[in-house]
Design brief:
With 119 residues, the chain is α+β, with helices and mostly antiparallel strands. A 4-stranded mixed β-sheet has the order 1-2-4-3, with helices on both faces. Helix 2 crosses helix 3. The protein is globular, with a radius of gyration of 14 Å.
Amino acid sequence: MERRYRLRGRNRFRGIRERGQRWVHPLAVLGGLPNGLDHTRCGFIVGRKLGGAVERNRIRRRLREAVRLSYQHMLPGWDLVWIARPPIGQADFGAIVAAVGYLLRQAGLQPPPEESRHA
């Protein structure tokens, strides 16, 4: 993700936790707060419960990539915090992508997938 799309700063993370909305999935939690900008910024939290530094960085990279793949379909103007939950360490990448899509749809930040129409 480009630097301008990254959420940085302890105070912004804290503000999303205190004033933002939250959506939950078994693999991740999504917190969000409108930011008034023309783009959405994302931050990622992977706690120490999920393993050592190597494992946490691997989880962070996979979660960031899943969000990057969905970014073009997201509505602009939000600050989002993605919090990894322990089962994500054993999940395959497809499950992580599905979890990201589910959370974005729950938050109303991504339209539902279009059903294929056959004539």
